[in-house]
Design brief:
This protein has about 170 residues and is mainly α. The protein is built from 8 helices and 2 strands; from the N terminus they run βααααβαααα. The protein has a two-stranded antiparallel sheet with strand order 1-2.
Length: about 170
């Protein structure tokens, strides 16, 4: 096992099928979507964390005022649509721990693969990754919700180097 980071608040190491987030070279936009989705996943897993407030705040700090709340709601809609399609537990990493936030679970990776493919208008890969993430169940609502989210965002800047600001959000 490899260490997640030397400067973390935990001693977490990479588990099976986990990868450092940095290995994927996500764009700033993708990193923000990942952070927002993680806050929603945490809100469902640990309701008393009230992490949905952090999801909303992240969108308000990142996106123009006229679309920030709509984007936060669209990410939530995508998370809910995915949850309705899956029957097993979704594994995600704690967005509030710098060490854990540097790690990408297999499920998070699939979610990001679907988002990235939808945002880049690659329907085949989007459907394939959605089918895997939704465990073979109907993923039409999930794909539609991500398409709605994508329509609110700037054009795909797939795999650009992340800025210091985006790095602070994850």
């Amino acid at each position: 096992m490899r260490s997640a980071s030397k400067d973390t608040c935990c001693s977490r190491t990479l588990g099976e099928n986990e990868t450092p987030v940095a290995a994927y070279g996500y764009s700033d936009l993708e990193l923000v979507i990942l952070a927002v989705a993680r806050f929603y996943w945490q809100a469902f897993a640990v309701p008393e964390s009230q992490s949905w407030l952090l999801a909303s705040d992240t969108c308000r700090r990142t996106f123009p005022e006229d679309v920030a709340c709509r984007i936060a709601t669209a990410v939530l809609d995508s998370v809910l649509a995915m949850r309705r399609s899956r029957s097993s537990c979704f594994h995600f990493n704690n967005p509030n721990c710098p060490g854990c936030a540097e790690i990408l679970s297999e499920h998070e990776r699939q979610f990001m693969n679907v988002f990235s493919a939808v945002h880049a208008h690659r329907k085949g890969p989007a459907r394939t990754h959605a089918m895997i993430l939704c465990e073979g169940a109907c993923s039409d609502d999930f794909l539609a919700s991500l398409a709605e989210l994508s329509s609110m965002l700037p054009a795909s800047q797939h795999r650009q180097r992340r800025s210091a600001r985006a790095a602070r959000l994850i």
